[in-house]
Amino acid sequence: MDLDLVFLGTSGSVPTAKRGLAGTLLRRGGERILVDCGEGTQRQLLRSSVGLVELPEIFLTHYHADHYLGLPGMLKTFALRGREVPLTVYGPPGLKDLFEILRRVFGRLSYELKLVEFGPGDGVKRADFRIEAFAVEHGVSANGYALVEDLRPGRFDLESAKALGVPEGPLFGRLQAGESVQLSDGTSVGSDQVLGPARPGRKVVLAGDTRAAGSVLEAARDGDVLVHEATFSVEERERADETLHATATSAAELAKAAGVGLLALTHLSNRYFGPEIVREARAVFPETVVPKDFDIIDVRFPERGGPRLLKGGALGRHEEGVPHDKDGSGDRGGRPRGGGGDSDDPALRGDPVGARVGRRDASDGAR
Ligand SMILES: [Zn+2]
Ligand SMILES: [Zn+2]
After folding, report:
1. What is the pLDDT of residues 102-144, one digit of tens each?
2. Residues 283, 237: contact at Cβ < 8 Å?
3. What pLDDT digit, counting tens, does each position of 295-304 carry?
4. Distance from Cα 54 to the centre of ligand 1, integer Å
5. Which pairing describes strands 296-299 and 307-310: parallel, antiparallel, or unpaired?
6. Which of 4, 66, 293, 364 is catalytic?
7. H or E stretch including 159?
8. Residues 161, 167, 171, 175, Cα dihedral to 10°
9. 3-state SS, residue 317
10. What does the alpha-carbon distance between residue 86 and residue 116 come to, in Å, rounded to a whole number?
């Protein structure tokens, strides 16, 4: 079963030329679960290889504007397309109050919109995994979310199966699925005779905005991937404390204590580019990455190599390969090149300055 995370927005509080606001898509098999929907998320989806799919479920971590302002526009777009599939938005207490206001913005929808307020200890159960809400410390009504897979069958012991006289073929599959089988000579073989102990499923934890908190550590314990914010570097520790955000160092210390497989830092203040954050965190916890927008983390099972970062893994087809003209406009006649996105965003490539030249003291930790 494929499980991955698509990073649609990795900036905190305000967008930059290269980083959009909070939005992470969890994909597991055919499931599509969006966590947070900052301004611009629908366009990030359009520009990605994912496309603006009819998401059935959106989980909000909290109601600071950089985490939900993309919702009204996205809901409206779905309505303009005549969507009929219901959509459920989950969030901490305050969701219904928020939508009292947002409804005036997006108006009537063509589909049913369900709102579910829930908090730590609550969850959503699916056939073979669940989404659990857990407490964070951000000074407002807020949830972190963990996707936790059910136990999976133990390793199939081929040698034991052969020794017991099970012929290769369909009986193997039934044993692997936990059934008992009858051999042609009448003996019966139970799955417990050929399967090792049940193995844990995967766990992916998205903490949202929070300082490094004990509740997050518990939720993340032995997780395959922890997505944690690192709004600040350790130099701004005091500012992080004041605003209930984490530093790269505090997030890395938490990841180390929790024994996670991979730490992904996100929600960077616009004063950082990424390398300084990853350097700082890796000094504490080497298994750290700082994904950019459109990066993917492929959450493989441990025996298949564990989680790995795929840089630009979700870039739309022509975001990847279209060379730009000297002036950076990329516009050669203005013909659309098909597909769902623009071809000419110079900010996506090359020098990271552009829109970020000048003031570096824009608001950051306040949201
Ligand atoms: Zn935020
Ligand atoms: Zn926040």
Report:
1. 999 999 999 999 999 999 999 999 999 999 999 999 999 999 9
2. no
3. 999 999 999 9
4. 25
5. antiparallel
6. 66
7. helix 158-163
8. 0
9. helix
10. 13
